[in-house]
Every structure is written in structure tokens, then in C-alpha cells.
């Protein structure tokens, strides 16, 4: 993997990806943030050596380098998921690349379902902690100790200072920002009523199919990390209706302007 990482980093440096400070991963239906980035360079994933390729139709599949709120950023427009057939090492490969290019902070967004029924669709949730139900770890491979501490501490995976800033920004801008526990499952099927009940008992406030692998690797690399979920549906097992994916995407797009404000104002303060 070290050889692959070096090849990818050299390619991107030659393309002009010069010392980004902050990495951003955009989740399902969350692409409007790009409108606030002064784009310097962009490269399609399928042109980047050793990079996975996004296979989900609503994921763009571009790595974008530019300036946002006065800071150099590198943005993943489209992410990778275990359910696409990738390994956890594939899913998290871009985080390793962004770290080698120079980022010190990783900001992550996702679309998720609200298990906590006090939370409503169209609102945002700041991830305070997570539960990994993806069946493995992105650090579970031979030679991982060459890239960072094998037994990575996860007692506080989300940066408290950044989370505090997010909450302050939300209050200033009258944005509803819940705080809770995100559980990551494999997917791509959505949960049964019994599974929603189980996840609630386990202490989850929202459920999705991403984010946790990237957070684990970011902690492995000693990056500062924060993540925000856009709540796109309400997972009430007693009143469960079939989910329309197009409605989920539409709800993500509706809530996205608030997320853009949070990210933009936060980046100004970093």
C-alpha cells in the first residue's frame, strides 16, 4: 500500500494539489458545497492512479482542490462504500492520500436516517460518537503499523474543539443541530423494523452506511476529525413505510444549505 500511496500522491502533486490544509468528504446528495469553493484543480477518480471509482449514480467521483473561506481544501465529491464491493482499505484510501498531501483536519458529511425520533428529517446531527457495525476494521491488514499505530485509541474520535465551534455556529445562525451517536452498517439494503429497534437499544441516534471507516483511519493518522449527518428520513419501526431513495436525495439537498453554512463558517475559524 505504501508504494500505491506514493504513486497517487506524486500524481496529484504534479497536477497542482499543493499543501491542502483541510479535507472534506461529501456524502450522498451533498454536492452544493462545491459552489463555495474557488476551484483550482479537479481530477476524476478514474484518472487517479490506484484510486477506487465511485459506482453509485448520485456520487460525482471527483477530487477537487481549491480555496474555501481562505483555506486550501481538498474535497471528495463522492465517496466509496463497503456495499459497492470495495474493501475497507479501498474505502479509506483517499483519507490516507489527503493526509500525505498535507491536511491536518478532516470534515465529513453523510445522509442518514434518524433513529432518535426526537430528531426530524431535514435537520442536522453533529456526530459525537459512533458504533461500527460494518463487520471489520480498515486497520485490520498486514503492515498497518507501517502507516500508524496499530492499536489506535478511539476514546474521543471526534474533535471536541471543532464540535464546540460547530454548535456555536449553529446557534448563531439559528440552525437546528442535534448531537448524537451514529451507527454505520454495511447496506445497501435499508433496515428492518426489528433492526431499527435493535439499533435504538444499542444507543444509536442515526444510522448510515459510511463515515465510520474514514473516521477510524483519520484517527489512525492523528488528524482532527468532525462529522455532520443530514437526517433524510425518520426510522420509526412502529410506522415504517417503504423508503423512496429519490426522496432521501431530495431531503439531503433541502437540508444542505445549513450544512454548507456550518462547514464554511467552521473553516474560517480553523
Automatic annotation (TrEMBL):
<keyword id="KW-0328">Glycosyltransferase</keyword>
<dbReference type="InterPro" id="IPR000845">
    <property type="entry name" value="Nucleoside_phosphorylase_d"/>
</dbReference>
<protein>
    <recommendedName>
        <fullName>Purine nucleoside phosphorylase</fullName>
        <ecNumber>2.4.2.1</ecNumber>
    </recommendedName>
</protein>
<dbReference type="InterPro" id="IPR011268">
    <property type="entry name" value="Purine_phosphorylase"/>
</dbReference>
<feature type="domain" description="Nucleoside phosphorylase">
    <location>
        <begin position="22"/>
        <end position="268"/>
    </location>
</feature>
<dbReference type="GO" id="GO:0005737">
    <property type="term" value="C:cytoplasm"/>
</dbReference>
<dbReference type="Pfam" id="PF01048">
    <property type="entry name" value="PNP_UDP_1"/>
</dbReference>
<dbReference type="GO" id="GO:0009116">
    <property type="term" value="P:nucleoside metabolic process"/>
</dbReference>
<dbReference type="GO" id="GO:0004731">
    <property type="term" value="F:purine-nucleoside phosphorylase activity"/>
</dbReference>
<comment type="similarity">
    <text>Belongs to the PNP/MTAP phosphorylase family.</text>
</comment>
<keyword id="KW-0808">Transferase</keyword>
<dbReference type="InterPro" id="IPR035994">
    <property type="entry name" value="Nucleoside_phosphorylase_sf"/>
</dbReference>
<comment type="pathway">
    <text>Purine metabolism; purine nucleoside salvage.</text>
</comment>
<comment type="function">
    <text>The purine nucleoside phosphorylases catalyze the phosphorolytic breakdown of the N-glycosidic bond in the beta-(deoxy)ribonucleoside molecules, with the formation of the corresponding free purine bases and pentose-1-phosphate.</text>
</comment>
Amino acid at each position: 500500500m505504501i508504494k500505491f500511496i506514493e504513486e497517487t500522491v506524486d500524481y496529484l502533486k504534479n497536477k497542482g494539489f499543493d499543501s491542502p490544509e483541510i479535507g472534506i468528504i461529501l456524502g450522498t446528495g451533498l454536492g452544493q458545497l462545491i459552489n463555495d469553493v474557488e476551484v483550482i484543480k479537479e481530477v476524476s477518480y478514474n484518472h487517479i492512479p490506484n484510486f477506487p471509482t465511485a459506482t453509485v449514480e448520485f456520487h460525482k467521483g471527483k477530487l477537487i482542490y481549491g480555496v474555501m473561506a481562505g483555506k486550501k481544501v481538498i474535497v471528495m465529491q463522492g465517496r466509496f462504500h463497503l456495499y459497492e464491493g470495495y474493501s475497507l482499505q479501498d474505502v479509506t484510501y483517499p483519507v490516507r492520500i489527503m493526509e500525505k498531501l498535507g491536511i491536518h483536519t478532516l470534515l465529513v458529511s453523510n445522509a442518514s436516517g434518524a433513529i432518535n425520533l426526537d430528531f426530524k428529517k431535514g435537520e442536522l446531527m453533529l456526530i459525537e460518537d459512533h458504533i461500527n457495525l460494518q463487520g471489520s476494521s480498515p486497520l485490520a491488514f498486514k503492515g498497518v503499523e507501517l502507516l500508524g499505530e496499530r492499536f489506535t485509541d478511539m476514546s474521543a474520535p471526534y474533535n471536541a474543539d471543532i464540535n464546540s465551534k460547530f454548535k456555536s455556529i449553529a446557534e448563531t445562525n439559528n440552525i437546528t443541530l442535534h448531537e448524537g451517536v451514529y451507527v454505520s452498517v454495511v447496506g445497501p439494503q435499508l433496515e428492518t423494523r426489528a433492526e431499527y429497534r435493535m439499533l435504538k437499544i444499542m444507543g444509536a441516534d442515526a444510522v448510515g452506511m459510511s463515515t465510520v471507516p474514514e473516521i477510524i483511519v483519520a484517527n489512525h493518522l492523528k488528524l482532527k476529525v468532525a462529522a455532520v449527518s443530514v437526517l433524510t428520513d425518520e426510522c420509526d419501526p412502529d410506522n415504517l413505510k417503504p423508503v423512496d431513495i429519490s426522496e432521501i436525495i431530495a431531503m439531503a439537498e433541502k437540508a444542505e444549505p445549513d450544512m454548507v453554512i456550518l462547514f464554511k463558517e467552521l473553516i474560517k475559524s480553523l
